[in-house]
Amino acid sequence: MTSTLQAPPGEAGPPPSRPSRARQALALARNTWRGLTSMRTALILLFLLAVAALPGALLPQRTPSPNAVDDYLTQNPTLGPVFDDLGLFDVFATPWFAAIYLLLFVSLIGCLVPRSFEHVRGLRAEPVSVPRSLARLPHHARSTSGDDPDAVVASARKRLRGWKVAVRSEPGGVRTLSAEKGALREVGNLVFHLSLVALLGGIAVGKLFGYEGQVIVMADGSEFCNAGIYAYDSFRPGLQVDGTGLDPFCMVVDDFRATFRPDGQPDSFDAAVRYQDTDAVERGDTAWAPHDLAVNDPLRVDGERVYLLGHGYAPRFTVTFPNGEQRVGLIQWRPVDQATLLSEGATKIDPPGVTDEAERRRSQLAITGLFAPTSSGGGLVTSVFPALNDPEVAVDVLRGDLGLDSGRAQSIFEVDRNMVEQGRLVRVARENVKPGGEIALDNGTRIRFDGVENWVSLQVSHDPAQTAVLIAAIALLGGLTLSLTVRRRRFWVRASPAEPSTTGGRTVVSLGGLARTDRAGYGEEFGRLAAELAPPHPDAGEQGRERPDPDVPAQDEREDDDGR
Amino acid sequence: MVVDAGLGQFGDLLFESALVIYVFAMILHAVEHALLRRTGAEEESAARVPVAAGATAGTAGMSGTSGTSGLSSEGAAAAADLEDTTEPPAPTRRPRSRAERFGRTGVSLTVLGFALHLAMLVVRGFAAQRVPWGNMYEFTAAISLVAVGAWLVVLRRRPELRRLGAFVLLPVIVLMFLAGTVLYTQTAPVVPALRSYWLAIHVSAAVIASGILLLAGVASVLYLLRRVHENDPSKLTWTSRLPAADVLDRVAYRATAIAFPIWTFAVITGAIWAEAAWGRYWGWDPKETTAFIAWIVYACYLHARSTAGWRGPRAAAVNVVGFAVMIFNLFFVNLVVTGLHSYAGVG
Ligand code: HEM
């Protein structure tokens, strides 16, 4: 079977005569195609694919972990950049990785399409006729029967229900029966390989038309709407996504609760949200549907999924300026220790009512430092537990120019170090404060640590082909299971009228069996069939015929006869 | 989530007992193996006559034992050839030789160890009130259990493979030893990300596939060694007491053919779980990447088995590589690389 699909090695050379250029090119193309679609090439490409994926396991990759790549680059200043140029930190997006799998899939289609046709033809064909000598087959048996050949073949036919059967006659009143079973194996193999193609197609569609956005939302009734890229802190669009035309559903995060075990391990995370799907938003509904967003349990709305990825704390500060005006600072701080949720951050505040730019640049405030949800107490505050049991901040208050107008992007978690170094941002206080506590500055400004809010980090994902990929994966598994469990096997009966001298019956029944794949167990099945169709005749002794062919044990088959 | 510490400790006790019993079983199988060899040598020096291949096969009892220098290489090869279609001959003619007694006791101990091992996981599950494969200690213990279970199934169907006992138990014991020392963790509930029925489905499939693939890997390694000997009988003479290369090859193939769809299922359910837990069904997390590589390598193995010129040793070598990737996935990726799967909870 497979032999017709394999190009014999060494066939690629040009023919000895001098053919025209066109024919030469044609021959070359044909040989290249044959080579590409051979099993050997498929095997080599598969192996290459595994080898090419190796750096993806051994080196940090940009896609899931960009920070780890940066760390690696700083730690390996010589080798790192070389790896980077080769694309080893982004293996699965490199052209060479794509080249391998695309070739593999071309080979796959080139191999499987002809094979499918061949299989369909094979399905219609009759089972092959009975070999002349059944005794040469790996499984065979012989007995006599009191019935005539027609009756023997008829009863065999009845017994072989579910097999594909052909009955033929041979000269001398001999009747034969050929039976085949296990065509599903080939079907399974084809389904498996074609599902692989479908799977790849689905993945590609997802990469083209999907997107992923992340956003941090304060869990105090703040709202998030999927209105466009600007709504996100980070956004990864598919190649065909420009950020317009997203489904504009909205959600409100009312509350977030985390519970922890005594040893500080997280026990559960839940965010209470309400949402409106796109239809509701467009109708201008006022009703919101409640949902409990938890780990392992995303909110599926329209074609999007909303995930709860992480959480953290945001200390709230109220600054009362000497003139009595107040400003509230509330922004997320980021956890620096996942086990205790010790967090760092910088809450930045513009003084109210200052119109003079120069004056404003002298009086901007930043509250920066550490936040401990459960404080260790003492002068050097750290966190001993991730829950909000005994919160405390250890902060510096800086005053001056935050550099917000400098045009440089700056982190929301830090103050601009340049400003500090240039002396334009100066520390005016350093204190540890618990909720309700105040810091008084020299100019009469008071900063109160009001309390703490939770924030949640959400991810919105969109992948239009996800269901198709799942279906392809299920088909793949089904096909694979079929192809690895179904045995293709053949069974033959020859019923010849007995010579008058034969004892025991009117018909000599010869049976033969051949498994076309090297799966186990046909021996047993053959034994059972033989016991029924050609039972040992009475004078053959008490032992009967447990094993029709003592030279071949029942358990095993030789290698398949395919492809050789 | 209540965790019953007392029950957990009882589980540890069961684990240690199972390990010790496996060690004894392995020693018995090793003795069995050594005795087989000695009888082989004795018989050979007693016979001394360089028998022709046909004659050797006739006295089936000895043909398998005579792989050492006395015989011509064709003789050995022919004998091996015959063996691959007939059942490997019993090591000696004498019923219940000493070797056999050792072997049978080894099997009994393996069964006993298996029972304790199973009890350990059950107890562990009750103690933590969840499926007992939530961290690497339990995961490794479960893989070893499946490997031993698969071995017992093979033994039931092909008792003549018993002499492989020591070679199967060796990697199991190494794994369990590592589990009990390096990877040991006390009974505990799992982090929220793992609290999902997918833990039971996805991880069970991974455990079952890994356990069966361990058996396949062992069979392929032995096959390769045995092939060396069959090609040049002066090399690796100890492998002459192993079943014929073809038999080993078939054990490896069948185990892989069963395990591969299970592994595929594990990867697919992993992707389904990842879609619910991490926001995408596939993200090239180190564990996902390595699972993919292992899957591709095993696909190579199955392919190689139907590619002319790749059947035999090359395919077996691919199978061994596949198992090496599985082990790499278990240890390196869990312990060294940090990824989303780093919940191993080693400490
Ligand atoms: C994406 C790459 C591929 C993967 C993952 C893959 C995987 C597999 C697996 C696991 C099997 C064993 C299951 C079975 O026997 O049905 C198999 C068999 C087979 N593959 Fe592939 N394959 C790939 C590409 C190809 C290509 C490119 C070809 C053609 C050149 C091909 C031709 C075959 C054939 C003919 C069989 C059946 C062998 C037999 O009859 O035993 N495959 N493949």
From TrEMBL, chain A:
<dbReference type="InterPro" id="IPR007816">
    <property type="entry name" value="ResB-like_domain"/>
</dbReference>
<feature type="region of interest" description="Disordered">
    <location>
        <begin position="1"/>
        <end position="21"/>
    </location>
</feature>
<feature type="transmembrane region" description="Helical">
    <location>
        <begin position="467"/>
        <end position="486"/>
    </location>
</feature>
<feature type="transmembrane region" description="Helical">
    <location>
        <begin position="96"/>
        <end position="114"/>
    </location>
</feature>
<feature type="compositionally biased region" description="Low complexity">
    <location>
        <begin position="1"/>
        <end position="10"/>
    </location>
</feature>
<dbReference type="Pfam" id="PF05140">
    <property type="entry name" value="ResB"/>
</dbReference>
<feature type="transmembrane region" description="Helical">
    <location>
        <begin position="42"/>
        <end position="59"/>
    </location>
</feature>
<feature type="domain" description="ResB-like">
    <location>
        <begin position="39"/>
        <end position="526"/>
    </location>
</feature>
<protein>
    <submittedName>
        <fullName>Cytochrome c biogenesis protein ResB</fullName>
    </submittedName>
</protein>
<feature type="region of interest" description="Disordered">
    <location>
        <begin position="525"/>
        <end position="564"/>
    </location>
</feature>
<feature type="compositionally biased region" description="Basic and acidic residues">
    <location>
        <begin position="539"/>
        <end position="550"/>
    </location>
</feature>
<keyword id="KW-1133">Transmembrane helix</keyword>
<feature type="transmembrane region" description="Helical">
    <location>
        <begin position="190"/>
        <end position="209"/>
    </location>
</feature>
<dbReference type="InterPro" id="IPR023494">
    <property type="entry name" value="Cyt_c_bgen_Ccs1/CcsB/ResB"/>
</dbReference>
<keyword id="KW-0812">Transmembrane</keyword>
<keyword id="KW-0201">Cytochrome c-type biogenesis</keyword>
<keyword id="KW-0472">Membrane</keyword>
TrEMBL record, chain B:
<feature type="transmembrane region" description="Helical">
    <location>
        <begin position="13"/>
        <end position="31"/>
    </location>
</feature>
<feature type="compositionally biased region" description="Low complexity">
    <location>
        <begin position="58"/>
        <end position="80"/>
    </location>
</feature>
<dbReference type="InterPro" id="IPR017562">
    <property type="entry name" value="Cyt_c_biogenesis_CcsA"/>
</dbReference>
<keyword id="KW-0812">Transmembrane</keyword>
<feature type="transmembrane region" description="Helical">
    <location>
        <begin position="316"/>
        <end position="337"/>
    </location>
</feature>
<feature type="transmembrane region" description="Helical">
    <location>
        <begin position="135"/>
        <end position="154"/>
    </location>
</feature>
<protein>
    <submittedName>
        <fullName>C-type cytochrome biogenesis protein CcsB</fullName>
    </submittedName>
</protein>
<dbReference type="InterPro" id="IPR002541">
    <property type="entry name" value="Cyt_c_assembly"/>
</dbReference>
<feature type="transmembrane region" description="Helical">
    <location>
        <begin position="166"/>
        <end position="185"/>
    </location>
</feature>
<dbReference type="Pfam" id="PF01578">
    <property type="entry name" value="Cytochrom_C_asm"/>
</dbReference>
<feature type="transmembrane region" description="Helical">
    <location>
        <begin position="102"/>
        <end position="123"/>
    </location>
</feature>
<feature type="transmembrane region" description="Helical">
    <location>
        <begin position="197"/>
        <end position="225"/>
    </location>
</feature>
<keyword id="KW-1133">Transmembrane helix</keyword>
<dbReference type="InterPro" id="IPR045062">
    <property type="entry name" value="Cyt_c_biogenesis_CcsA/CcmC"/>
</dbReference>
<feature type="domain" description="Cytochrome c assembly protein">
    <location>
        <begin position="133"/>
        <end position="341"/>
    </location>
</feature>
<keyword id="KW-0472">Membrane</keyword>
<feature type="region of interest" description="Disordered">
    <location>
        <begin position="58"/>
        <end position="100"/>
    </location>
</feature>
<keyword id="KW-0201">Cytochrome c-type biogenesis</keyword>
<feature type="transmembrane region" description="Helical">
    <location>
        <begin position="251"/>
        <end position="274"/>
    </location>
</feature>
<feature type="transmembrane region" description="Helical">
    <location>
        <begin position="286"/>
        <end position="304"/>
    </location>
</feature>
